[in-house]
Amino acid sequence: MQSPRDFIEGAIAYNFKNKCIIDEAIQQTRNKRLAFLGDKVVALVIVDSWYRSKRSCGDGYKQLQNYASNRKLACQARGKHIDECIQPGPLNPLSSNPSIHSLATDVEAIVGAVWIDSGRNFGVVKGVMRRLELCPA
Questions:
Q1: In the prediction, which pLDDT does 1 show?
Q2: Distances in Å between the alpha carbon of 118 and those of 95, 101, 111?
Q3: Cα 77 from Cα 94, distance rounded (Å)
Q4: Spatial distance between the Cα atoms of 129 and 95, rounded to a whole number of angstroms
Q5: Distance (Å, rounded) from C-alpha 127 to C-alpha 97?
Q6: InterPro entries in the record, alphabetically (predicted)?
Q7: Degrees (nearest 5) of the Cα angle 132, 64, 80?
Q8: How far apart are CA 26 and CA 31, in angstroms?
Q9: How far apart are CA 68 and CA 120, in angstroms?
Q10: CA atoms within 13 A on the CB side of 27
């Protein structure tokens, strides 16, 4: 049976050099700082793509809403089965259905972990986000 860490690495096609950081990302009681960072990294990747497209600010805002909303992040967590790998905290016992916000936080934490582990490599993070369908191709 595959460990949660191995499953996530396979799902995002990224192998962590520092296994502790992905372990932190998948523990709801410990992933808040990574999620805060990941939220901003997700936005940066999306806004950078928008900026390069030379489209209007309105289009940039729509793109950010389409790819970085909690609903979209939670949908991808479920669709990629990442939700099954998260170690719940006391507010989300294993028997409960995780909230949209909680699932979005988990995905952001994973993106934040990739950002740190990859040495803040924009291209690597963008590749992970593409595999998670969180940014335009």
A1: 75
A2: 34, 26, 10
A3: 16
A4: 29
A5: 29
A6: RNase_III_dom (IPR000999), RNase_III_sf (IPR036389)
A7: 15
A8: 7
A9: 19
A10: 8
Asked if pLDDT for residue 39 goes beyond 70, the answer is yes
The top-level CATH class assigned to 4-89+100-132 is mainly alpha
Output the 3-class SS for the chain. Answer: CCCHHHHHHHHHCCCCCCHHHHHHHCECCCCHHHHHHHHHHHHHHHHHHHHHHCCCHHHHHHHHHHHHCHHHHHHHHHHCCHHHCCECCCCCCCCCCCCHHHHHHHHHHHHHHHHHHCCCCHHHHHHHHHHCCCCCC
The residue whose two tokens read 């191995």 is 6
Q: What token pair was written down for 102?
A: 């909680």
Domains in the chain: boundaries: 4-89+100-132
107 close to 29: Cβ distance less than 8 angstroms: no
- Please state, in angstroms and rounded to a whole number, the distance separating the CA atoms of residues 104 and 78: 10
pLDDT digits (tens, 9 = 90+) for 106-137: 999 999 999 999 999 999 999 999 999 998 87
